[in-house]
């Protein structure tokens, strides 16, 4: 969902303009715990019932934000045009299960077509996008990202701005000592030495009952002083 190219390719949702398959010019704003961006396009209505709200094709405003806590993606689309106050809103939360599986949760909201008879249409539209993404995600090979000392930096064009911001956040987590050492953990598991993600509440008091924490890759020198803070529970696995 952070890759804007997938909208026209996977879902058939174009951006309008001279090249409807390319996102318009936009910039990424970095937050304390993630990043956000705003895209203004001229996306055509997806169904006849929506056309009456399009007016004179004022820009459709899409606001996207990613938050590291909960690996949460928030999307807000003012589908009827900027200033109309008609929004589709969703939250997508991701929980790593293991190296190859992630549990995803969705919350969808709207403030238009509120009548019960319109629920089925919205559920159908949301499920269509979810299952299109699910099919693509499950077909990706390889199923796990390679363990690299550093990831290549994407410096291509506006299609890659949001993905580049995501990988920058991942590098911050690794540098802060938050990434699980997968190889070390596999050896521990094989010997029956099971580990857990540390609980901040239990670690705050040394007398609390605490399982041994999962091994993590060492923090970079720049973030060495923050390694203890990182062990409070912030992590990423997949």
Throw out a few tags for this protein.
238 residues, 6 helices, disordered C terminus, 6 strands, Naphthalene 1,2-dioxygenase Alpha Subunit, Chain A, domain 1, alpha+beta, globular, 6-stranded antiparallel sheet, 2 domains
Uncertain residue ranges: 226-238
Question: Which CATH architecture of the largest domain?
Answer: Alpha-Beta Complex
The percent range for helix content is 10-25%
CATH topology of the largest domain: Naphthalene 1,2-dioxygenase Alpha Subunit, Chain A, domain 1
- Write down the secondary-structure element order: HEEEEEEHHHHH
Describe the structure in your own words:
The C terminus is likely disordered. With 238 residues, the protein is an alpha+beta fold. It folds into 2 domains: 139 residues, Alpha-Beta Complex (Naphthalene 1,2-dioxygenase Alpha Subunit, Chain A, domain 1), CATH 3.90.380; 51 residues, no CATH class. The protein is built from 6 helices and 6 strands, in the order H-E-E-E-E-E-E-H-H-H-H-H. The two termini are 16 Å apart. A 6-stranded antiparallel β-sheet has the order 1-2-3-4-5-6, with helices on one face.
What is the gist of this entry?
The chain is α+β, with helices and mostly antiparallel strands and 238 residues long. 25% of the residues lie in helices and 20% in strands.
Task: Break the fold down into its secondary structure elements and pairings.
Blueprint (H helix, E strand, L loop, with lengths): L5 H6 L16 E4 L2 E8 L18 E8 L4 E7 L9 E11 L2 E10 L8 H21 L21 H15 L6 H9 L9 H4 L23 H4 L8
Antiparallel strand pairs: 1-2, 2-3, 3-4, 4-5, 5-6
């Amino acid at each position: 969902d952070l890759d804007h190219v997938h909208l026209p390719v996977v879902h058939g949702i174009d951006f309008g303009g001279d090249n409807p398959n390319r996102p318009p010019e936009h910039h990424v704003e970095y937050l304390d715990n993630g990043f956000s961006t705003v895209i203004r396009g001229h996306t055509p209505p997806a169904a006849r019932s929506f056309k009456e709200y399009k007016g004179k094709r004022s820009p459709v405003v899409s606001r996207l934000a990613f938050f590291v806590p909960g690996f949460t993606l928030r999307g807000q689309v003012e589908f009827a045009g900027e200033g109309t106050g008609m929004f589709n809103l969703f939250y997508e939360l991701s929980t790593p299960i293991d190296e190859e599986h992630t549990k995803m949760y969705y919350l969808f909201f709207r403030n238009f077509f509120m009548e019960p008879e319109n629920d089925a249409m919205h559920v159908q539209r949301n499920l269509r996008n979810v299952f299109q993404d699910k099919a693509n995600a499950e077909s990706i090979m390889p199923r796990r990202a390679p363990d690299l000392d550093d990831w290549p930096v994407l410096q291509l064009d506006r299609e890659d701005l949001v993905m580049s911001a995501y990988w920058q956040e991942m590098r911050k987590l690794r540098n802060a000592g938050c990434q699980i050492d997968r190889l070390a953990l596999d050896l521990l598991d094989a010997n029956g030495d099971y580990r857990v993600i540390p609980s901040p509440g239990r670690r705050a008091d040394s007398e609390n009952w605490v399982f041994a924490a999962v091994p993590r890759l060492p923090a970079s020198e720049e973030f060495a002083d923050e390694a203890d803070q990182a062990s409070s529970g912030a992590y990423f696995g997949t």
